[in-house]
Structure formats: C-alpha cells, structure tokens
Amino acid sequence: MPHLPRSGNAWNKSSDSTNFSEHPYYILEHPYMDNAPNFSELLSALFPELDAERAAHLAALEPIYREWNARINVVSRKDIDNLMIHHVLHSLAIARFVHFAPDTRLLDVGTGGGFPGIPLAVLFPDCRFTLIDRIGKKTKVAAAVAEGVGLQNVEVLHENVTEERRRFDFVISRAVMRADELYALVAKRIDAKGKASSMPNGMLCLKGGDLTEETQGLKNIQEFSLADHIAHPFFETKKLLYVPAATNLPR
Predict the structure, then answer these.
(1) Where are the domains of the chain?
(2) 39-244: which CATH topology?
(3) In the chain, which stretches have pLDDT less than 70?
(4) How far is CA 105 from CA 164, 202, 218, in A?
(5) For residue 35, what pLDDT is reported?
(6) What is the pLDDT of residue 32?
(7) DSSP secondary-structure letter at 10?
(8) Rounded to 5 degrees, what are φ and ψ at 190?
(9) What pLDDT score does 250 carry?
(10) Which pLDDT score, from 0 to 100, does residue 175 have?
(11) Residue 45, burial from CB neighbour count under 10 angstroms (0-12, 13-18, 19+)
(12) How much is the pTM?
C-alpha cells in the first residue's frame, strides 16, 4: 500500500477563532434523519473535501484491525462489526472541532489499539503523533496497524504517561480516565504557549455522560456534543472535552 501524501490539501483551512460554528466543516443540520447512515455516508458528510487516497486508507483500517483483533483483543468481539463507526469515526470526530496545523505534536494517552491517534494521523499526515499505552500487547497492535496502513507520522510506545518527558501541542485521549485526573498527569507535557492550530494548545478528550464532577477543578473548559454533528444513535451521548493549557497551568 502506498504511503500517505505529505500535503494536507484536504485540511488546509484554519481559523484563529474558537467559534466553531464558523469552522469550514461545521454542519448545522444532520444530513440523515430517517435511517442510521453507514460509515462511508457519514464520512462523506463530515469531511466532504476528503481526498480519495485518505478515504481509502481509512477504509483499509477495517480488515487490518479485524485480522489483528482475532489474535489480540483490543476491540470487544461483540463490537468489532461496529469498528468503523464506534471507533474510527468516533476518533475522527475530534477533527470536526479543530484543525491541526502542520508539524503539530500530539500525544495519544492510553491509545489501546490506536484510538483516536491512528484515524487522526490519516487525516493529518503533516502532524506528528505519539501513541502510548502501558499494555504491551495493545501497542503491538497499534504499531502493526500504523505500519499496515502506511503511516509515516506515527510512533507507538509501550510506556506509562508518567515516563514521557517530551512536550506536545495537544494531548488527546478517548475515555481513559477522569478528565481532572488525566490533566494532572499530562499538564507538564503540554506546551501551554503554543497556538499553531485553530485552537490554543491543550487537552482534547472524547468522553460520554455527565462531566460536571470531573471537570470542576479545570478552568475555561469547552464541552461539545458530537450528536450536534453526527446523525447516528451511537453519538447521542458522546462529547468532546477541550481543556486549554494556558489557563490550566501545572502547579
């Protein structure tokens, strides 16, 4: 399979504003209301300018994950048939709210089998993704998937977040732990002064349910409902939490 192109033409629009209703890929109304759409329909609606090569690389994730999941269970076997929507599209949802500028450094904490890092790395080939997990068999799968789809902008490490000493522009995660507990672990790893992307550097977490208790100690957070952007029942309770680093400096 050919390697991903180094240009980011499909995502070359960015804004200094954090008013996401003005984002170029913001959808005010769901394109599908009667029947739950499939992955290809949702992908086309969410990212209409996605080029064919990147769409093909995203589609290629399914057989690779299925093959590896049969050996090492990183996705529930009851949920593997929902892989593309429940895991790949869920990961891609972050890109509905932020455009990562070229050379943005992202740390995916508790990546498991590579979510959300690997799907986002397909979308943003000019960004640098570091995926970490403390469970070795999961990082083995993530590394194999990244290699199998031809990603050149991903490194996968078997380590605990407390072992990482580099600094990043964004920390991303998907339901790893409470937001306040995770931020306490990663705050010193975020370059709080940077703002190369369409929002200031910080932490982005895919979460669900009521986040009130776990965000009480965090300042100037923004919480976004994925259901406002993705017309599918799975996303009805899913959210993206953004914690800006500049107003939540480590103590």
Answers:
(1) 39-244
(2) Rossmann fold (3.40.50)
(3) 1-36, 251
(4) 14, 11, 23
(5) 62
(6) 41
(7) G
(8) -100, 130
(9) 76
(10) 85
(11) middle
(12) 0.86
